[in-house]
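Circularly permuted ATP-grasp type 2 domain-containing protein: structure, please.
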Amino acid sequence: MKTVYDEMYAADGSVRESYRNYANWLQVIPDDVIARKREAADLAFHRAGITFAVYGEANSQERLIPFDIIPRIIPTREWQHLSDGLRQRVKALNAFLHDIYHDQEILKAGLIPAGQVLRNSQFRPEMVGVDVPEQIYAHIAGIDLVRADTGNQTGEYFVLEDNLRTPSGVSYMLENRKMVMRLFPDLFVRQKIAPVEHYPDLLLSNLRSVAPAGIVDPTVVILTPGQYNSAYFEHAFLAQQMGIELVDGYDLFVKNKTVFMRTTEGPRRVDVIYRRVDDDYLDPQAFRKDSMLGVPGLFSAYKAGNVTLTNAVGTGIADDKAIYVHVPEMIRFYCGEEPILSNVPTWELRKPEDLAYVLAHLPELVVKEVHGSGGYGMLIGPTASVDEIRLFRDKISADPANYIAQPTLALSTCPTFVESGVAPRHIDLRPYVLSGREITMVPGGLTRVALKEGSLVVNSSQGGGTKDTWVLEGER
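Here you go.
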């Protein structure tokens, strides 16, 4: 049986130093008080419209993402290690994206099979030779981290996946902090917790820093697919927090390879677009001709250097799970350093020897589609039925290159308030890394929690919830 690392309690049952103040407070707070506070939080989230929708559901309704009021706490030294590793990783990913759309040196060196990149559906041939400001492609990256006990009771962090297309969830990070401060202000008096509320200012500064050359006071907008998108709340929230316009495709037009926004005072030039629309739907003249979400001519303006798109077109190749396995080699190649944060050990099923091993050990492993997301298109072997394993075996055999496999990590747990009281539940962490002239981030990120007992799936679309994430200042 695998040992599970508990964020709050050491193996001998003692409370870890970073949780000591919180544990003392939790001991004297009755469960019924916590329950009432949780109900107050749910009501406040409903009133604020902090909901999401799930694609593909019949009569899909807006849902509330469950919020757990017990925070995840990270000491300063631990966060410093994570932030160093995140900066290194995102730097290498941006270098990789610039390289594959220009000289392709990493492919020529044979470190990544060229076919894995050039024949990947996320690779955009239209981007070859296109220069982008500061050579930054992934301006906003959400890097998913998990923590597992590797046998020494220290709980090592691993990168589970890189989200570089349109990473979501930062609005919940901000709203969770606001909610905990509102419900339990006394907790923030007991210890010094690093702030996260300046993220919108940091994001806006980052976006302005990558405006086209010569633009002194850039106009920045958020491009949304519309109110029926599952993350629409976040689009509107970030626009409001940054004091910029939230637009859809109909609000923008292109003239002389320049993007303009329709306003009551006439057309206004747009310099930076934080787009929450996928590549395929950005411009019906360049990509999907049936798209009603994008802006005709947008890609031509982008190639001409008259507007910056964040994240850049074509970033999806770098967060594809088939490319994920090569990130440590990217770090060595582009940074000349050893990776600070490790990948989860991964089998590539395009390799015959890996395929044979995985097919022989399916009940023990996690298998994922290389393009899958949101917890879909995956098999968790230890919890799967015989029929589910048989069906997945057939899928893998039919198209091995479409899958990777990983060991079933015993993800760390954090105390969580559930129906039966306070109980451990598995968690992950998504910090948000901003790349512009500098690489910056706020301390912490979005902690997602699997609310079902024993579950390892933290995605909100599959019943997961979220927690506030505290980075303690001055706590070693």
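Notes: The chain has two domains: 17-212+307-341+427-471, 345-407.
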